[in-house]
Recover the amino acids of this structure.
């Protein structure tokens, strides 16, 4: 009976291959616009005129045992060329067992201490901070709020440049994320290149097109209306949740290229894997929570949400409403594509069709004159040129079943190996186009980091697979860098 089931499944192989190719083609079409983003990001980014008004901001920092770095961040804030009377720094010392709170207060910050062993995410810490700001100051006492991590450092003109964007009417703004420990090791370099890749392939183009780029954890500013009803993003990745919710509600999220801050990246593989697993789980949850709203918005626009500006149809010209509807629908589509776990879809269709159904087909029909090494990656072509293309023939039966699986696994391995080397071009591209902002490092280190860079995406792929099945909790990332803003500031005093 089992043989009959396997034979029946194998009978659908040709149909399943058509379906496999169709899904691949659809995904390729849906993501083709990314090529336009790349071209725009290479050539352009949005520029903002100097602000006419100085706005009042609250600066929020969630810190857990950050006594090693928080003082340097607060020093970089104190050195801003922006009117200090318009800035109030708030720190939440979240479940700290060190001197974080003491150092924060010593540097002039308003510090609230929080102790909660059940709700441990950064999102809960920010929620607590906003609750206290609302109680003691009032949310609308500040026109906008910055979010930073305790390990960040700000160029001295950072807030001035962000104020230029805010004064232009933008409600949510992210900025240029640089790395203060770029050359500490290969792990840190993969993160550093990832943030710059995001800038070049996403942020710049989306800002030019007035769409919505994605918030990435830290270094962003938003208007007080975003948290008028409190901070509700308390999951594993509060940044993705905020991004998805804001886009679903109709907000643009822009990017200010001239506002640069510095971040510390993990140097431990264990810590990096733990962080990436949390990101992957958070992204999957954000897709489940907000994906349906984004999908509906693609087709119905703002039909099911309140207009963020509070305008009636009579107050807004019809052509502006049409343009805004198109913008919002595409931004919703773009954000949905960003949240959709495409790596999971690709893995599923490969396992089902190329591995299992093909193995069932081989069980019934055998393997007839099939290339042992097949595919179009540069690795496969190189092997074929050197060793030729060995052909295998196997009679129908259980041996054909398992050998078919092994051939599929071999093809996948060689394909991924080829993709690994092909992805190195992105590191080369970033080292060239961002050479004035990347920390000066030796040529040999650039070569090394070019070879290790593709591991960032590999880790992301496999942590996404793992995140489907495991429970993930939030854990802090240790920060120890003693780098100060005076050592890395690139603003030139402007």
């Amino acid at each position: 009976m089992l043989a009959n089931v396997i034979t029946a499944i194998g009978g659908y192989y040709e149909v399943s291959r058509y379906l496999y190719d169709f899904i691949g083609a659809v995904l390729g079409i849906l993501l083709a616009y990314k090529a336009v983003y790349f071209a725009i990001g290479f050539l352009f980014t949005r520029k903002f005129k100097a602000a006419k008004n100085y706005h009042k901001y609250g600066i929020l920092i969630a810190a857990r045992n950050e006594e090693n770095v928080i003082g340097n961040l607060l020093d970089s804030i104190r050195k801003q060329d922006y009117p200090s009377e318009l800035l109030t720094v708030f720190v939440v010392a979240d479940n700290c067992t060190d001197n974080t709170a003491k150092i924060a207060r010593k540097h002039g910050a308003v510090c609230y201490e929080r102790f909660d062993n059940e709700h441990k995410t950064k999102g809960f810490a920010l929620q607590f901070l906003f609750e206290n700001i609302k109680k003691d100051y009032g949310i609308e006492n500040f026109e906008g709020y910055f979010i930073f991590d305790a390990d960040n450092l700000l160029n001295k003109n950072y807030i001035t440049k962000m104020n230029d964007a805010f004064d232009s009417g933008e409600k949510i703004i992210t900025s240029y994320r640089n790395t203060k420990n770029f050359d500490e090791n290969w792990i840190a370099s993969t993160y550093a290149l990832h943030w710059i890749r995001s800038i070049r392939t996403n942020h710049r183009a989306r800002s030019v097109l007035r769409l919505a780029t994605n918030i990435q954890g830290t270094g962003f500013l938003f208007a007080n209306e975003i948290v008028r009803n409190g901070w509700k993003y308390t999951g594993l990745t509060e940044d993705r949740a905020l991004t998805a919710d804001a886009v679903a509600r109709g907000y643009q999220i822009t990017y200010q290229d001239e506002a640069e801050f510095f971040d510390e990246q993990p140097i431990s593989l264990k810590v990096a894997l733990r962080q990436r697993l949390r990101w992957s789980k958070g992204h999957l949850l954000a897709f489940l929570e907000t994906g349906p709203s984004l999908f509906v918005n693609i087709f119905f626009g703002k039909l099911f949400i309140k207009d963020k500006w509070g305008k009636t149809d009579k107050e807004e010209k019809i052509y502006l409403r049409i343009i805004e509807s198109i913008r919002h629908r595409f931004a919703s589509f773009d954000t949905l594509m960003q949240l959709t776990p495409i790596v999971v879809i690709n893995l599923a269709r490969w396992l089902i069709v190329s591995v299992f159904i093909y193995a069932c087909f081989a069980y019934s029909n055998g393997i007839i004159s099939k290339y042992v090494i097949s595919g179009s990656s540069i690795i496969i072509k190189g092997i074929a040129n050197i060793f030729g293309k060995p052909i295998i023939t196997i009679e129908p039966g259980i041996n054909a079943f398992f050998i078919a699986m092994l051939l599929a696994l071999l093809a996948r391995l060689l394909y991924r190996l080829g993709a690994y080397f092909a992805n190195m071009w992105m590191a080369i591209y970033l080292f060239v186009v961002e050479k004035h902002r990347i920390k000066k490092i030796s040529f040999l280190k650039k070569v090394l980091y070019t070879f290790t860079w593709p591991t960032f995406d590999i880790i992301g792929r496999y942590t996404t697979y793992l995140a489907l099945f495991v429970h993930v909790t939030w854990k802090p990332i240790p920060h120890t860098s003693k780098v100060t803003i005076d050592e890395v500031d690139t603003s030139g005093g402007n």
The radius of gyration is 25 Å.
